[in-house]
Specification:
Radius of gyration: 26 Å
Number of helices: 17
Strand content: 5-15%
Order of helices and strands: HEEHHEEEHEHEHEEHHHHHHHHHHH
Structural class: alpha+beta
Amino acid sequence: MTLDALEQLKHGHPESVGDHLNGIKCRVGLAVFDAAQVCLVEAALFSKYDLAHAGGETKLSHTQTESLSQVDFHNHNYVGYTVIRINTYSYKVAFKLSLITLVHPPSNDGDSTLDVSLLRRANAWLQRRNLGVLDDLLLIGVGFDDEPTLQEMLIPYGLISAEFDVIPPDQLDESDGTALGESVESIARGWISKHHGDAIPVVKWTKLISSAAYSMEDWWWVGLTATNDEQSSLADILGELLPAAFNKQAMTWATIIAECGGLSPDGEEHEAHDAAMEAVALARWLTGFDAATENNFYDFSASGAIEAGGLDTLRLGFEAGRNHRAELDDYFDGNDETDEGLAAACLLACLDERMGAIRATLTSAFGDDSLLFWSLYRSIWPDLKRPSDENMNGLLSLSDVEIGDIERPWLFVKDGWIEFAEE
C-alpha cells in the first residue's frame, strides 16, 4: 500500500494517492504530513525535497506518547524517501496549547536548506495533531509582503493548517527591536483576545503535557487551556468566586487541580465534597494573589463560597471541630454568631490548612515557584512585546520592575499565603 502510493507520486499522479494513503502519515525529514495534505498540496515534496533538504536530519524521532496511547511504527524506505505508517489510538488529553512564533524569510544566498528550528517546531505540532490534539498555532511572518507569500514558504514544513499574519517590510524596521515588539504585540493581543482569552500563559508545560515534544525556546507566547469541559462543575464554582483576571481561565484552573489532585467531583458524596472544597480553596488562593499584587482588594466571601460550592455545612462543622479547633478560634469566639457566620468560620478554619497544599499542587504543575509566579502575574498584566522567556527573565531579574512592585505577590507564592482581613 505504501509503495503503491509512492509510485503514484513518483510518476506524477497525486490524484490517485488517496486510494493508498488511508490511515498513513508521511514524513519528509522532520516534517509530518497528513494523507489529505499529501494528496492535495504536498505531493510534489516527494520529488522536490529529500532528507538532505531537511537540514541533514536523517533520524526521525519516535513520537512521545502518554500511557493511554499506542503508536505502531512500520518503516519503509523507498527511493530515498521515508514513509512511516502510524496506527494511532485515541487517548485522553486534558490540555492543549496555543502558540505564537515568528517566521522570517529565507536568506537570499541561494541555500535551499530548510530551517531546522522551525522544522522541529512543525514536527512537534504535527505529532500532536496525529494524536488528535489540535494545538492552535499562529505564525507571524516578519518581513513578508502578504500572507500567501508566507504560506507558500511554509508548505515544506507541513504548516498549511496553522493560522497566519504578517508584518510587511514597509511596516518594519528590524533594527528597532521596540518597533518589532509593538507590531507583534498588536497582532498577538488581537489573536489572544479573540480566540484564547481563557488561556493561562505558560513558559514550561511538561508536567501537564508530557506528550508535547515542543522546545521551550523560540516561542513568543504560549497559552494553556483545557481540552474539554469534564470539570465543568468545579469550573462553575470558580466562575462564581474568581476575580476578573482569572475568571475566564476557570475551566483550565479546574482541570489543573482535578488532574493533579486526583479529584472526583462526580464520585461518591464525600469525594464530590472534597473536590468542591479544593475548588473553593483555589478560588481563595487566587483571590489572595490578586490582592497581593494590589490589582484588587481582597474580597473572598466565605458565605458566598459555601453557596457557590454547594458545601455541606454539617461536614464543614465536623471537619473544623475535629481537625482545626485552633484555627476555628481565630474566626469564631462563640458569642452572638449566626448560623451563617458559624458556617463561614468553619469553612475558613478548614481552608487555612489547604492553602499550602494548593500552592504545592500549582508549583508542581507549573514547574517551580518562579514559573507559577510568572503565569499568575502575566494573567493579570500581559506583556506581549518580547518572547515569553525574555519576558520572564526581565520580570524576575527586576530589570522590568522595582522590587517593591512584586515583593508581596512573590512572597505570597513562595510562602503559600499571607494574612488578609476576612469577611
